[in-house]
Amino acid sequence: MRLFVFCVLAAAGAAVLAPQPALALSGGSPAPAGDRLTRATVFITSLTPMGRSRAQVGNCTGVLIERNLVLTAGHCLADLGGPSVVVAQFFEGDGRPGPMVQVAAGAMHPDFQGRGDADNPRPELLGADLAILKLARPAPRDRRPIRIAAQPLKAAKTRSVLAGAGLSDPSDEGSSGELRLANVSAEVVTDGPTAVAFGVSGGAVCRGDSGGPVMGQGGVWGVVIAIVRRRNLCNSTIFMAVLDPKSRGFRNMLSRARKG
């Protein structure tokens, strides 16, 4: 589990690097204000010191699964080096980031393969690219956690929707932060300890949407973990981690996140 140290964001405003590549939606539809997935999705921003008064800024998407817990992609935490400032923002009715809650701690899936596993990768564990963030205080009262599908493999076969808040314009670095939805068709391609699904979204997935929730019949069944790149940072073909809330690894991650 990684603990996060908080500082004043304004003090580092002029000394940050360009955001690191993550994932996001371009071409999806604006998220409806009253949609339950809209009201449970959050925009995650991290600020990590890089030395000599410099810092790395990163964005991801996540989803509220308990009043103070947000599910996202594991590499969103693995890319943080040392103490980091991490905040989560909920979305207003216009789809733009609104109320902000600081992140107090985070726990990664115990089978997540970080950079230290590069010499001995295990394909059957690729779906363990998961993490849960613990908010410093419960989400606003008007935000309701969304349930994880009890049968995620079955839910993955149903009509699904992806939520993402990354670049709405791939050529504009300042266009992230607007929540958008896109339809997703998926097929589970691995059945190891942590399953992975391959799919095509109705919008290009680019930068800012790693960890974006994928919801089908019965609840959220997966999160976005990678895009298939061609000539740029955006594409409509993606890989998703299939959730298994009953598995040892997921229960371990959830328990550690709750304890903070």
Structure in words:
With 260 residues, this protein is mainly β. The protein has two domains: 2-20 and 36-145 and 248-259, Trypsin-like serine proteases (Thrombin, subunit H); 152-242, Trypsin-like serine proteases (Thrombin, subunit H). It is 10% helix and 40% strand. The protein has four helices and 15 strands. The chain has helices at 36-40, 75-78, 152-155, 248-259; strands spanning 2-3, 25-26, 29-30, 41-51, 54-66, 69-72, 85-91, 97-108, 131-135, 160-164, 180-190, 196-205, 213-216, 219-227, 235-242. The chain has a six-stranded antiparallel β-barrel with strand order 4-5-6-9-8-7. Strands 10-11-12-15-14-13 form a six-stranded antiparallel β-barrel. It is globular and about 45 Å long. It starts with a strand and ends with a helix. 50% of the residues are buried.
> Strand percentage, roughly?
35-45%
Shape: globular
CATH class of the largest domain: Mainly Beta
Main sheet record: 6 strands, antiparallel, barrel
Oligomer: single chain
Structural class: mainly beta
End-to-end Cα distance, whole Å, is 8 Å
Q: Name the helicity range.
A: under 10%
CATH superfamily of the largest domain: Trypsin-like serine proteases
- Would you list the SSEs in sequence order as H and E? EEEHEEEHEEEHEEEEEEH
Give the low-confidence spans.
Answer: 1-24
Total number of distinct structural domains: 2
CATH architecture of the largest domain: Beta Barrel
**Spatial order of the strands forming the largest sheet:** 4-5-6-9-8-7
Total beta strand runs: 15
Please report the number of helical segments: 4
Q: Give the overall average pLDDT.
A: 78
- What is the CA-based Rg, rounded? 17 Å
What's the CATH topology label of the largest domain? Thrombin, subunit H
